[in-house]
Design goal:
About 75% of the residues lie in helices and about 5% in strands. It is built from 10 helices and 2 strands, in the order ββαααααααααα.
């Protein structure tokens, strides 16, 4: 195990392993890339600008990410994990599976309105990430979560029995479009009310 001694904020020496340095470099790249992708989009954010913002070398970037697209994918996944975490917290306040689905869906409208989420997840990801990869990631962050929520609702008798997959696809498409509307300036309350009505009608 390789250990490097660096100076901490308090002036004392701190021993850092190679694994810790790698994790720190990766985190710096992800943070810098997320800021720049959000502000300038995938096409507008240059590699040199990213490494300069992260305070690392270009070689260090390619050690962790084989391409700019690979870096974008990692940023996208981190962004989606943040979104899912906030949606899950909001949904947990629900008293039953259908109320959890409603609260989580409404929370998504607010979370997706954030500039980084809107630009990275809603605008650039469909253009940058291959279709098959997006389907795979959607299963983890979007479609799979909605499918599970709908299944729980049906098992609890809160939603009538119906094919889950088509319904999950339709609900996900509706959420993405609703979030885009809000992010582009549509009235959040009005969009939320329509979403609420649709969910109540299930």
């Amino acid at each position: 195990m390789t250990v490097k001694v660096v100076q901490g904020d308090d002036g004392h020496a701190v021993r850092r392993t190679q694994a810790e340095r790698r994790a720190s470099t990766r985190a710096a790249l992800l943070a810098a890339a997320r800021e720049l992708f959000a502000a300038k989009g995938f096409a507008g954010a240059g590699r040199e600008e990213i490494v300069e913002r992260a305070g690392v070398t270009r070689g260090a970037m390619y050690h962790h990410f084989a391409s700019k697209e690979a870096l974008f994918q990692a940023v996208y996944e981190a962004c989606e994990e943040d979104v899912l975490g906030r949606v899950v917290i909001a949904a947990a306040a629900g008293g039953d599976p259908k109320e959890m689905l409603r609260l989580g869906s409404l929370a998504y409208l607010d979370v997706a309105a954030a500039e980084d989420v809107r630009r990275i997840c809603l605008i650039d990801a469909p253009a940058v990430l291959p279709t098959e990869l997006r389907r795979e990631l959607s299963e983890r962050f979007g479609l799979g979560v909605i499918r599970d929520a709908l299944t729980e609702c049906m098992e609890a008798g809160l939603i009538g029995e119906q094919p889950v997959d088509p319904l999950a696809h339709l609900l996900l498409a509706m959420l993405l479009e609703a979030a885009t509307l809000v992010a582009e300036g549509a009235d959040r309350v009005a969009v939320g009310a329509v979403l609420d009505h649709v969910l109540d009608s299930l």
